[in-house]
Amino acid sequence: MKPLKNAVETDNLRKVFEIKQGLLRRNAKTVVAVEGISLTVPAGQSVAFIGPNGAGKSTTIKMLTGILKPSSGTASVLGLDPWKQRSKLVHQIGAVFGQRSQLWLHLPPSDSFDLLAEIYGIPKNDYRKRKALLVERFDLGRFLSTPVRKLSLGERMRAEIAASLLHRPQLLLLDEPTIGVDVIARQNLRDLVCEWNREEGVTVFLTSHDTGDIESVADRVIVINHGRVVLDDSLSGVSANTLIEGKPAGLEEIIAHLFNSAASLTMQNCISPS
Amino acid sequence: MWFSKILSYLRLARAYIKLNWSMQMEYRGAFVSQALAMFLNNGTWLAFWMLFFSRFPVIKGWEQADVVTLWAISAAGFGLGNAFCWNLHNLAAMVSRGELDVWMLYPRSLIPHLALGKMSATAIGDLAFGYFIYIVMVRPDLQHFLLFNLLVVAVAVVFIGFNLWRGSLAFYFGQAEVLSEQWFFAMITFSTYPNCLFDGWMKVVLYTLIPAGFVSGLPVEALRDFDFSAAAFTWLGALAVLISGAASFELGLRRYQSGNLLGMRS
Amino acid sequence: MKNSIRQSWAVAKVAARSNLAYIGEVASRTFFLAVILFIFLKLWQATYRESASAVLGGLSLSQMLWYLTVTEAIYMSAPRLAQQIDEDVRSGALAVRLLKPISYPLYCLSSALGERIVRFLANFATGAAVTFCLVGPFDCTPAAPIMLLVTVLLAFVLDGLGHLIIGLWAFWLEDTSGLLLIYTRLSMILGGMLIPMELFPDWLKSFVLFLPFPYLVWGPAHLFVHSDWLQFGQLVGLQSLYILVMLGVVNLIYGWALERISAHGG
Lengths: 274, 266, 266
Prior knowledge:
Low-confidence stretches of chain B: 262-266
Strand content of chain B: under 5%
Helix content of chain B: over 70%
Shape of chain B: globular
Distance between the termini of chain C: 27 Å
Largest sheet of chain C: none
Number of strands of chain B: 0
Largest sheet of chain B: none
Number of helices of chain B: 13
Structural class of chain C: mainly alpha
Distance between the termini of chain B: 43 Å
Structural class of chain B: mainly alpha
Number of domains of chain C: 1
Oligomer: heterotrimer
Radius of gyration of chain B: 19 Å
Low-confidence stretches of chain C: none
Shape of chain C: globular
Mean pLDDT of chain C: 91
Number of helices of chain C: 12
Number of domains of chain B: 1
Order of helices and strands of chain C: HHHHHHHHHHHH
Strand content of chain C: under 5%
Helix content of chain C: over 70%
């Protein structure tokens, strides 16, 4: 496979939902969920993709994974058209959702891994090597044969992330991966994600409300509100270049400000890291 | 003195029921569909009995009308007893999870507060089902209908007392949810099959350990033969179940308050 | 196709393993099974005695009890498939499931199948032990267990598809539990759960044979107590036919559902 330049490219991506109302469902109301998003994410970058609930964040991700069909605009993910080549694309995507486990609660992680290997059709030999590597690097050996319900949340999330990397995805979607995890385990998870991003060049798409996650994992921050991109800058650039009411502000403050008002920030310049 | 006391408890009950009712009405759609689902569920069993009696018209002297009466009285009685006292259904779990503490902060006796705290839409469906099939399928005259009402209340009392029995288990055994649930299933199952099927030692069990005889036996006979002594025995049994239930609950509660239940909430 | 079979086998295996992990929960229901089988014994004992015949609907009393043991084991192992889809759609977990390279209905069906087989075997083993104590053995042919296993497996696939068809309506309806209740109650009554189809009135029997319900319950249970290769062949043929038809229906509805998701987000 030839190396990709860009993991994600979208051009003016737009999604309008039609909500039918009334007794006979005649009065259709349209709601614009995503209003023309154009993004370019180079392969290997890790991006924090954030926004308040209902901002259009999950609609965008659903379009990028081919679950939703955009109303207009185009997108290419890992060189594929998400809604035409969805079955091909899902083989290249790994996903971890902090609130939703892909591991079987009553069985040890090892069993869930075996199942995922079958689901993704990973050849036996390949799988054995890959599993050994992940077990070692994520330090899963101690609890690989303990039922998941008996693991601590930190251990479980480590197993979750390892599980999502079994099939060597090129794009890793992380949704609130550290929610409820204690401080030390949280740092450990962030380090693991960074490591994998550096070494395997997996592109990371992180959605999180935790600025700590964002600061330690992401190279770039994209804030979305009311269906539009309201901030897109490199992580270092965000703090350095953004002023709120004339004063420099921390990431937490900036995000809060953007969530609140969708107001225009006073930006000295906006770096598009493409 | 005692009269004003009873009156004050009745006022308390009214307040609880009013509150719970308006809460159910907040989710009217869910309420109606749950009640209807119970109608349908009970209707399936009735359909089974009609199939059965279409082939075998008489079993041990019981005919189709008797089984319809049985289902009417047990559904209505169960519904009445549980509709407004739904918390008692999960009493064992509440006790072992230490949820009683919240309720003990209220003035007056614990049981009424606890019992009236929650309402059940499915039980209201049962109640409605019982009356519906009695009126539509048995078509009673006025006297039978009045007696039916009297017996429905007695059966409700049996179920409330029985719920106190099995809920109190948790005071004595700690984790008693499984036992309490199995006991409940046994009671419900025996309450919905003709009592005449059982004899010997089973008959004894059904008037003591699993008091389903006061649901599926005596009340049905009372209505069929218009027999006041059977009705009186139903009421006696109901009161016995209720009083012993309340007593075992109060005794257990004393153990609970004295802190003799170590490791309960762990 | 070969790939799908491998995937589905892997999912079913893990689901079965996962259920074995809490087999204790299944064991706690044993008591209920014992109660219901005891009541059935009493009911049918009285029925056989009063109709003064040793054989009803082609079955002896002990065959009847063994028949009901199988039907209860089938009924009590019912999967939570439709509810699962309901939850997936409502909670948004569906979006996560769609990120896996396995068809969603196939995943649901395989996982339900794996779960159900474990639960059926556990229920059947305990039920058989109870029934053996109550009425002793019946003249079981060596082929009977094999016939039971094959037809029960096909019945579970068929029932799983039925659940899928209902569950998939969750994309359009707010709540599918009402539909599910109707479906399960129909399969209970028309499937011959409580009374074998031979004892149905003639008009009902001729009508029911055109529905899939008897092949979910009555078919396998009846074959177990009355093993016959010709009937076995007929049953397997009919079950396969219905499976094919329902597969088509599932595909159709799932296609619509996918269209709806891609436009509305589920």
